[in-house]
Write a structure and sequence with these properties.
single chain; mainly beta; Pnp Oxidase, Chain A; seven-stranded antiparallel β-sheet; three-stranded antiparallel β-sheet; 4 helices; globular
Length: 201
């Protein structure tokens, strides 16, 4: 089949997210100007540059208690900082709990029973025990077409890696099985890998 998004797809559910899969999940931790912590997962997330290392995530909806966006973006606007926590399969339930639509005054670390650890280069916390975390300083927020579509870009100023995930000097994702987002309500985990050499290697 072929369809134009503006005309609709005629299917029971929107297939777009199922086509662009799997997607890594950025479990974004922030703090607002008053110090209230926030933790929320975003599946429109990825790395975008090596030198300096940079990442992005997109927020595509808004909350009634924020100005046209969600807590994560509002907090980053206020403080200029955020941390990307990498989600392992074992943390799927905790991650899912933080996707609940809590009010802006709620600390998701406490609400979901998640232990926090202070970051080294920024003022917010990271999730204790995650396989890796990327401490970021905001570089820009880009508004996309659509009511609440915003992309946050950040430069990575500090990188945490859990010791058991380093094998012979390589960060081995199979050790922790990254959780990935698919379409609908579906997720997957990475439990195996293979290598390919480029033709000019």
């Amino acid at each position: 089949m072929f369809y134009r998004p503006e005309d609709g797809h005629g299917l029971p559910h929107n297939p777009f997210n199922a086509i662009v899969t799997p997607r890594p999940i950025g479990w974004i931790s922030t703090r607002d100007a008053e110090g209230v912590r926030n933790l929320a997962p975003y599946s429109f997330f990825n790395a975008v540059a090596y030198f300096p290392p940079q990442v992005m995530f997109a927020s595509t909806s808004a909350k009634p208690d924020q100005d046209g966006t969600k807590d994560s973006v509002a907090n980053i606007r206020a403080t200029g900082e955020f941390c990307v926590n990498i989600v392992e399969f074992a943390a799927r339930d905790a991650m899912n709990k933080t996707s609940e639509g809590f009010g802006r005054e709620v600390d998701e670390f406490e609400a979901a029973g998640i232990e926090a650890v202070a970051c080294e280069t920024i003022g917010c916390d990271r999730v204790a025990g995650v396989p890796a975390a990327l401490e970021c300083k905001l570089t820009r927020i880009v508004e996309l077409p659509g009511e609440a579509n915003k992309v946050v870009f950040g430069e990575v100023t500090g990188i945490y890696m859990r010791d058991d995930c380093l094998v012979d000097g390589v960060f081995d994702v199979v050790r922790f099985q990254p959780l990935t987002r698919m379409g609908y309500r579906d997720y997957s985990k990475i439990s195996e890998k293979f290598s390919l050499k480029r033709p000019d290697d």
